[in-house]
Design brief:
The chain folds into 3 domains: about 60 residues, no CATH class; about 150 residues, Leucine Dehydrogenase, chain A, domain 1 (Rossmann fold), CATH 3.40.50; about 150 residues, Rossmann fold, CATH 3.40.50.720. Helix content is about 45%, strand content about 15%. The chain is globular. The structure holds nicotinamide-adenine-dinucleotide (NAD).
Amino acid sequence: MAQESLTTPTERMATADGKLGAKVVSQPEQPAGGPTEEELNPWITQESRFDFAAKKLNLDDGMWKVLREPTREIIVHIPVQMDDGKIEVFTGYRVQHSMARGPAKGGVRYAKNVSLDEVRALASWMTWKCAVVNIPFGGAKGGVICDPHSMSQGELERMTRRYTAELMEFIGPEKDVPAPDMGTNEQIMAWMMDTYSMHQRQTVTSVVTGKPLNIGGSRGRLQATGHGISVVCDCALQFLAMPAKGCRVVIQGFGNVGSNTARLLFEKGYTITGVAEYDGGLWNEQGIDISALLRHRAELGTITGFAGAQAAESPDVITRECDILVPAATENVITSANAAELKCRILCEGANGPTTIPADEILADKGVLVLPDILANAGGVTASYFEWVQDRMGYFWTEAEVNERLDRIMTDSFHDVISYAQTHGVNNRIAAYMLAIDRVAYTTRQRGMYA
Ligand code: NAD
């Protein structure tokens, strides 16, 4: 079936009828130097895709206005005493996009380049992601502008506790449940849980997910995003009638998502030919031994210098020939500047927002099968949902039980998105948005407007 696609914001507006998409965003000419600021703004990207999907759904004007903007945007300025005795003030955000289907849910990011637009986009993507996998959560995201790698454990703990305290009345198991994202981890979640619990005068484990196992974490959560990615890769290969054995995979980012994806695909018999990190890439046509690479990284703190592969330039690795490319690092890594160079059959988005709108168009022309972020990386939030359920029950599942439930949800969601795309003649990304918007709009209508 022919698929309509979302091209530039200018073309998007031409397809809208003036009701959806009142804000006209013109596409400035592409400077010779690379993608425009607009192409790289995650909120504009999110809005554009939302508008396009809403238009395809014939979403009424009122519901479009409700779902387009976040419900609440909180900005906090966090004073922290640094180790040298000086006071530093960090800016933090928490954006709650929707709570229609359940408590808001979403990670907390610590990074130097966090911005309100980025957090807004990530919060909206959480709403759509939770709806795609049909779990009872809305969407939220948090972020603090800081460089976590240059801060001591003490400084990170004081900043985390004050950030949590500033959000005290806005978060909670029935309100908004944070989780780890880039720059945050199990330890940060433990401090958030403890700070919240101190204010409540009782231990409330279900206020955050992604916690250490002994304080209410779930088995399987740490590797769940990679696990989910491996399941949708299996589904995509079946869909394209391609064998998993010998399937060549390139992965960008070797953090939580990238390294777990690499390990799980390697264990399933996929051939990981390339890995790209910040400080360099690796290439081995015969396949990289991921267990050995993980040991190397654990010892030296970097993937570079690994003897089982040739060194390669990181940006070059993602454009080499492969069957599946998994960007698992950060946003805007596949843009109008490099999309034409990609030589993958399947793009499986481990990161949130790795592909820009102009890049989507180029990939569509090349016939790349895209497994969009709000489907492909939803294994993490699905296991977070399991953690929240187990905390509230006080009864914990085995890893096999977690994985069995996760496999079922990821497999069903893959098929839901593929069949939605086929039925409506849209690409997988727009299909995932449409499926999600339809579910959130349905619940919002059912609940009615409180006035
Ligand atoms: P992480 O911080 O553990 O890992 C990110 C890795 O990517 C780091 O090793 C970093 O050095 C590397 N990196 C950053 N920029 C890079 C670049 N330009 N080129 C190559 N490598 C680069 O973070 P994570 O938790 O693995 O998250 C990665 C992505 O996945 C983010 O977009 C995040 O929002 C998304 N995500 C994470 C989860 C989760 O459960 N952790 C769930 C869903 C989505």
